[in-house]
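Problem 12. The chain below contains 129 residues. Write out its predicted structure in token notation.
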Amino acid sequence: MPVRTKRWNDPADPDDGFRLLVTRYRPRGVKKADETWQEWWPEMGPSRALHAAFWGKSGRPITFEQYRPRYLEEMRGQTFRIRALADRAAAGETITLLCSSACVDPARCHRTLLAKLIDQGARHRSGDR
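Solution.
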């Protein structure tokens, strides 16, 4: 049930499996031919409002401790997508979640939170079999 995380511009490895871009905003200046991902699901990234709050675009930036529960709450609306990814992971498919090139700390990134949600779902699914 491997779910991995990387930045979209990290080198692709042959065993990355399904490379999914999970950013709200598509990377600027990247031509379609230069995309390093198979699909882009912007709704798996933080909402525009949460993104702005984290980066301080509308006042003092919120902390990651404030960000985490808000992002997880937003993902409650994406359970069907998370379930679909969990099913793929439970079936043995490798999934690599890709985030922004500016996101250098995976411990403070939504891609890691999302990977945990998918892993939890995959473990639950494989236990159901």
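Discussion. The chain has a mean pLDDT of 93. Students who got a different answer should revisit the alignment rule from Section 12.3.
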